[in-house]
Structures are given as structure tokens and as C-alpha cells.
């Protein structure tokens, strides 16, 4: 891999240490779960030194209790639900487990999540839940850098413990210097970061606990105050395409890092083996010195991908079908640089778009578009969605056959994945699952090769934009260069507009359209923004989520959406969104699963308007009311929205909003900390997210 840098921090990543390799200054390797930088040219056969350092002799007392969070029992340490505990080597740590809530939940330790008990230096007194009972662990130089605390009776209940020296020794001239101690990579311990000051390699001095690494005006690293007070702003967030996120959120910060919160299952946080839910945003553990991230997408609850500023693709989380491109199916605890692997077809190419590492839980495939117009894929291939002529799962990225000069790809985000690709000449290609005729081939036969949609070609129609809904009842849409909207596929509730029944070929359904959106479930609907800034909708309307008037009757043809001109005054006369003086609509999204849909529209003036199911406050109107029937302003606190995305499943909806000033807000269902810092409770008005 090429040299990577952050200011004056610069090195060349060489992967796992090999005694057969010759290393030079600023080459970096991984060895025994830590990172080392070479400080002597021509170093061969010299193993990176074992970490040594200063032991402490202190005794620390903690009180452990059990509380219910999101319906699950969780440990609380000193009254706070803990994700990670930080211990120092040489210390004595006494955990008071006498509280009655601890009955049946004995505290234990292990070297892996829910693994065999770790007993070295561990003593217990009494029984958990009884007066005077304690669990004590004494750490020493041999204590592993990573341990886990857990319930001895219940899997999935516990968290991680980092065990480190107060300071570490660095021996220059031996060939190697410690760069990052332990699997957390960047820490605030002395010697953990080695940087080049212009003359020589220099260890970064110690910071304070909780400090974050920053770069000063001269380009040198330093430890700064906690990132919750750092003034960092959000520059990007979850791509809203395809399936919505489930009980989690993410954001791209102005330093190029990605912050994650919420559901920790399947290692979604990208921070090692820890699967604890994140109640506040934590940084995804990209290797130190990685390029700035510009794109992030997390599927329903399993896999995540990002793209860096140089077009490099990163994958983490679930990898059950090889969707990470590693050549295997092992879980990716931290981000894997798929673009840097010569065995992948994207190696040496610039990725410009990701169609989502989408899938229904572990039935996941990964599709990307590169700057040269080629499409590449890996992962689950049960319906031919890899596009290489077969249905064999693929654990390496391979090029989709027969596609060149492609400008956009879209995918129905489920295990039944269907794909569309738009070519520069305005033709559209389709492959994968063909439930309900979503491939527009005239039948319901799936295809493992990308096939031209003949309707557009035969009628000399030049397509300029494409999209898909999700699940087995997938549907497709296209907009041509004359602003006409075409739809096809699943039509269960009239979501396609136009003629009744599932449609195996495109049909022109609405003129004067600039943008479209399709809902991702059997209770489907479609929204279209016209060139005049008005909003139109068709399909399922059980909770009034179409916003077309004071009823919940589904529509089978496009109907103009209405707005409440007087805030929440339900007696007001409804008006069109493009009424005189009203700002035009620039974006619309719909989310939810089953019948619990809700819709949000963004206007050019930065205001948001919502409608539909609001049982968990996801409409952001200060209450939990539903069936408002028409679009009503979201309470914005004098802020202006720049972009947004929706999350949730079923009734558990949430809305995340990036404001024009770079601040970030959340509202709606809070289970598993989907709304960060909200103790798993729902919020009915937009809450600021602290980074």
C-alpha cells in the first residue's frame, strides 16, 4: 500500500510482520495486536519488541448493578451503563456486586466475548446479589491487553476491558518502535504514536484520558480536548438509498472520521470484537493515517462500507457470504481496505459509488461503480446478483460482465437483490432477482447476467435517472431526458400509478418529474418531485403517509401532496406544496416496515415537513400522534436543514438531520440507543447529537 499521512504523521503500512521481509524507516507492521514503526533502514529478522512499561500499585473500587435497556439486562458500573472499562497493569480492581439487581447475574471475565472464564488474578467473595459480595481482579504485566467482563449466566451481557501500562518503553536503534498499543490503535499513552517531526521519528507525549488526536497549524499531532467539545461538524451521513438502517446511526465528521452509535450487533461499530450498543457516537477504528472518508452506508443490521477521498473502498461488520471482499467469510471486526487487495477486481481503480452492502441480515452482497464505468460485486449470489453468469457466492470483488460506461447503479436492498445500471448513452441494464417483474424483462425469471431493458432502447428513450424499492416485491422507476417518470414491478397498493397489477415492463405514469422515491416494503408507495417543486404520491396510505389529504385511503394514481399552511392547526384549509410563495421541495424520503410508514420532505428554504405514523415521535412535531394526513412542519428550533435520512423498522422510526451549520439532530425511536444519549427513550423533537 502506498504511503499514507495525517499532517506530518506519515508511514507505509506493510501489514502483518514477517521475519523474511526487509523493512525501512517509517514502514509500519502489526505484531501481537499492536502496531510498530520501523526506525532503522534495512531491518531484517528483528521481531518487534515485547511491550514493557510502568506498573501501578493502586486499588480502585467500583459498584456494579443491573438495569433493563431496550428490554435487555445490562451491567451498570458506578451508575453508568459501560461499554468499555479501562484498567492499568499492576492495579487492583474491586467490583462490589452486592446490589439485589445482581442476583442471578454473577460477574465474570473472559479473553473473548462470552468465552471461557479468565481466572488469573481473579478472586470472588460471596454470591452476587448478597451483602458483602465482591469480585476482584489484580492485573500484572502478563494480563492480556484486552479482556471482557460478562455475566456468568447470560450471553451477550457485558462489555470490554482495555488493560495497559501507564507508560511504555521505546528502544530506538533496535529496528522497531511502538506506534499503537493494543487493538484500540490510537490512545493517550506516551509512546503510542510515533511521528516524523521533520528530522527524526518522535514519540508523542502523554495526553489526558479521553483526549483525541488533532493536528496543529504546523501539521504536527497533539492531544486535544474530548471530541464532544472539539467543535467538529458533520459533513456527511448515511446514504439514504435502499433499506433503512435499523436501530443505529452514523455521520462523517469534518476530520474525515466516521462516528457510529446504536446497535452493536454484528460488529457494526467497526471497533474490534466488542458488540456492545453505543449510547454515544464512537469513531470507527480505521487504521491510523487512513484517508478521509467521504461516504458511508450501513445496511439493515449487518454490514457497513465507506469510500475514502481517493476512491478506496472499506468494509466491516458481517461477512457471512464474503461481501467484504476478503476471500473468506470471517467477520470483519475493523474496516478492511478492499481496494488495497490485489485479489479484488477493484484494486487500482477509483470507486465513485456504492450501491449498498445490502442484504436481509446475512444474505448480503456488495456492489460498486468505478470511475472507468465498470461495475464490481461480491457476496451472496443466490439470485445471480453478482452478475457473473452463475449463482455461486463470491468472496472477492469481480467485475460484472458486459457493463461498460456505466454512470449509476442501484439495488433493491434485500436478500432478493435486484440491480439496475444506467449507461452513459441512456440505456438501462438489469440483473438479479426478478420477483414481480422488477427486471422489466416481460417475465419473472431471475438473471445472473446484466441484460438490456428493451423498452427504453426500442422506443428511443434516453434515461437520465433510475431507482429501485426493496424486498421481494421490488419495483423500479426511471426518469428520461424529457422529465417523464416510468415505473414497473410490484404494484400491490397502486404504488406504481397507472395500470393495475404487477408490471413486467416500464409504463409512463407522470410527466414533468425531476426526482422520485420508492418505499421499501410490501406496503409500498412512490413519491415524485415535479420540476415546479410540487410533490406527488401514490400507493399505500394506511397512516396517511402519502400526505394527500384528510383520509387514509390508498391511491392508485399520482395525487398531489398537501401541506398544512398554519402549523398544527388541523382546521386549516389544505394547500399545495407549490402554493404561491412556498419554497420548492428538493428531497423526499419514506421509511418504516409493514404498514408503519412515515414521510419527510425537505424544502429549499431548509425547512422539513413530515406526515404518517408518529407513534415514537419520529415526525418531529413534539408529540406521538399519527395520521396527520397532510405534511406538517418539523419543529426546527430556528435551524435550517441541509440533508437528512430516515431509519428504523416497523413502528421504530427515527429521523436524522444535518443542519446547514454542520450540527446534527435526531428524533424518534431510541431503542438500543438509536437516538444517542437518550437512555433508549424516544424523542418527539429534534435533539442535538454531541460528537
Task: Detail the topology: elements first, then pairings.
Elements: E1 3-6, E2 9-16, E3 22-23, E4 27-31, E5 34-38, E6 43-44, E7 59-69, E8 72-77, E9 80-81, E10 84-88, E11 92-96, E12 107-110, E13 122-125, E14 134-138, E15 146-151, E16 158-164, E17 176-180, E18 194-196, E19 201-203, E20 212-215, E21 221-224, E22 234-237, E23 248-253, E24 258-262, E25 278-283, E26 293-298, E27 303-308, E28 313-317, E29 332-337, E30 351-354, E31 359-360, E32 363-370, E33 375-379, E34 394-399, E35 406-411, E36 418-423, E37 428-432, E38 447-452, H1 454-458, E39 463-468, E40 475-480, E41 485-489, E42 503-510, E43 513-518, E44 525-530, E45 535-539, E46 555-560, E47 562-563, E48 575-576, E49 585-591, E50 598-603, E51 608-612, E52 632-633, E53 641-647, E54 654-659, E55 664-668, E56 683-688
Account of the protein in words:
The chain has 691 residues and is mainly beta. Among the domains are: 109 residues, no CATH class; 106 residues, Cupredoxins -  blue copper proteins (Immunoglobulin-like), CATH 2.60.40; 170 residues, Regulator of chromosome condensation 1/beta-lactamase-inhibitor protein II (Methylamine Dehydrogenase, Chain H), CATH 2.130.10. Helices cover 1% and strands 42% of the residues. The strands form 15 sheets. Strands 9-8-7-11-14-13 form a six-stranded mixed beta sheet, with no helix packed on it. Strands 1-2-4-5-17 form a five-stranded mixed beta sheet, with no helix packed on it. Strands 30, 31, 32, 33 and 34 form a five-stranded antiparallel beta sheet that branches. A hairpin with a 4-residue loop joins β27 and β28. The radius of gyration is 27 Å and the shape is globular.
Amino acid at each position: 500500500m502506498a504511503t499514507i499521512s495525517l499532517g506530518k504523521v506519515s508511514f507505509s503500512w506493510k501489514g502483518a510482520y514477517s521475519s523474511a521481509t526487509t523493512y525501512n524507516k517509517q514502514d509500519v507492521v502489526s505484531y501481537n495486536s499492536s502496531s510498530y514503526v520501523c526506525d532503522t533502514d534495512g531491518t531484517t529478522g528483528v521481531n518487534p519488541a515485547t511491550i514493557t512499561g510502568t506498573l501501578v500499585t493502586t486499588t480502585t473500587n467500583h459498584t456494579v448493578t443491573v438495569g433493563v435497556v431496550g428490554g435487555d439486562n445490562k451491567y451498570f458500573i458506578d451508575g453508568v451503563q459501560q461499554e468499555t472499562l479501562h484498567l492499568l497493569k499492576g492495579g487492583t480492581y474491586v467490583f462490589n456486586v452486592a446490589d439485589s439487581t445482581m442476583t442471578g447475574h454473577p460477574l465474570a471475565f473472559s479473553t473473548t466475548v462470552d468465552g471461557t472464564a479468565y481466572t488469573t488474578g481473579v478472586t470472588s467473595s460471596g454470591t452476587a446479589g448478597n451483602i458483602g459480595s465482591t469480585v476482584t481482579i489484580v492485573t500484572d504485566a502478563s494480563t492480556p491487553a484486552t479482556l471482557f467482563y460478562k455475566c456468568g449466566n447470560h450471553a451477550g451481557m457485558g462489555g470490554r476491558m482495555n488493560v495497559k501500562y501507564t507508560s511504555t518503553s521505546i528502544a530506538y536503534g533496535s529496528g522497531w518502535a511502538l506506534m499503537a498499543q493494543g487493538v484500540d490503535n490510537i490512545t493517550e499513552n506516551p509512546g503510542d504514536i510515533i511521528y516524523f517531526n521533520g528530522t527524526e521519528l518522535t514519540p508523542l507525549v502523554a495526553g489526558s484520558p479521553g483526549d483525541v488526536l488533532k493536528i496543529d497549524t504546523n501539521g504536527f499531532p497533539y492531544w486535544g480536548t474530548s471530541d464532544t467539545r472539539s467543535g467538529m461538524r458533520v459533513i456527511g451521513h448515511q446514504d439514504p438509498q435502499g433499506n433503512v438502517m435499523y436501530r443505529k446511526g452514523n455521520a462523517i465528521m469534518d476530520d474525515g472520521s466516521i462516528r457510529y452509535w446504536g446497535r452493536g450487533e454484528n460488529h457494526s461499530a467497526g471497533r474490534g470484537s466488542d458488540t456492545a450498543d453505543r449510547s454515544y457516537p464512537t469513531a470507527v477504528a480505521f487504521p491510523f493515517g487512513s484517508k478521509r472518508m467521504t461516504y458511508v452506508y450501513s445496511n439493515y443490521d449487518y454490514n457497513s462500507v465507506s469510500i475514502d477521498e481517493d476512491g478506496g473502498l472499506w468494509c466491516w461488520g458481517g461477512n457471512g457470504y464474503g461481501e467484504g471482499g476478503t476471500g473468506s467469510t470471517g467477520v470483519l471486526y475493523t474496516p478492511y481496505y478492499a481496494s488495497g487487495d490485489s485479489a479484488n477486481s477493484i484494486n487500482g481503480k477509483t470507486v465513485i459509488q456504492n450501491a449498498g452492502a445490502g442484504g436481509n441480515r446475512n444474505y448480503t452482497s456488495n456492489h460498486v461503480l468505478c470511475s472507468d464505468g465498470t461495475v464490481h460485486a461480491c457476496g451472496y449470489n443466490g439470485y445471480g446478483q453478482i452478475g457473473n453468469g452463475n449463482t455461486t457466492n463470491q468472496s472477492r470483488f469481480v467485475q460484472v460482465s458486459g457493463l461498460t460506461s456505466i454512470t449509476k447503479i442501484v439495488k433493491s436492498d434485500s436478500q432478493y437483490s435486484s440491480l439496475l445500471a444506467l449507461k452513459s448513452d441512456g440505456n438501462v441494464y438489469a440483473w438479479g432477482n426478478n420477483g414481480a417483474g422488477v427486471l422489466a424483462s416481460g417475465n419473472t425469471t431471475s438473471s445472473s447476467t446484466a441484460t438490456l431493458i428493451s423498452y427504453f432502447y426500442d422506443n428511443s428513450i434516453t434515461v437520465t435517472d433510475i431507482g429501485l424499492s426493496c424486498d421481494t416485491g421490488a419495483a423500479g422507476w426511471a426518469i428520461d431526458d424529457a422529465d417523464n417518470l416510468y415505473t414497473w414491478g410490484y404494484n400491490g397498493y397502486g404504488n406504481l400509478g397507472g395500470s393495475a397489477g404487477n408490471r413486467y415492463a416500464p409504463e409512463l405514469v407522470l410527466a414533468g418529474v425531476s426526482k422520485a422515491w420508492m418505499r421499501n416494503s410490501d406496503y409500498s408507495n412512490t413519491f415524485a418531485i415535479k420540476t415546479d417543486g410540487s410533490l406527488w404520491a401514490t400507493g399505500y396510505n394506511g397512516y396517511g403517509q402519502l400526505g394527500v389529504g384528510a383520509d387514509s385511503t390508498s391511491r392508485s394514481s399520482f395525487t398531489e401532496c398537501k401541506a398544512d399552511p398554519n402549523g398544527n392547526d388541523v382546521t386549516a384549509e389544505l394547500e399545495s406544496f407549490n402554493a404561491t410563495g412556498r419554497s420548492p421541495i428538493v428531497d423526499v424520503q419514506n421509511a418504516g416496515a409493514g404498514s408503519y410508514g412515515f414521510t419527510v420532505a425537505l424544502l429549499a428554504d431548509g425547512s422539513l415537513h413530515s406526515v404518517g405514523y408518529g407513534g415514537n415521535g419520529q415526525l418531529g412535531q413534539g408529540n406521538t400522534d399519527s395520521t396527520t394526513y397532510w405534511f406538517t412542519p418539523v419543529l426546527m428550533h430556528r435551524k435550517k436543514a441541509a440533508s437528512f435520512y430516515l431509519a428504523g423498522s416497523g413502528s421504530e422510526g427515527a429521523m436524522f438531520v444535518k443542519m446547514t451549520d454542520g450540527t446534527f439532530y435526531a428524533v424518534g425511536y431510541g431503542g438500543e440507543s438509536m437516538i444517542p444519549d437518550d437512555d433508549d427513550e424516544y424523542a418527539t423533537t429534534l435533539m442535538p447529537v454531541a460528537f
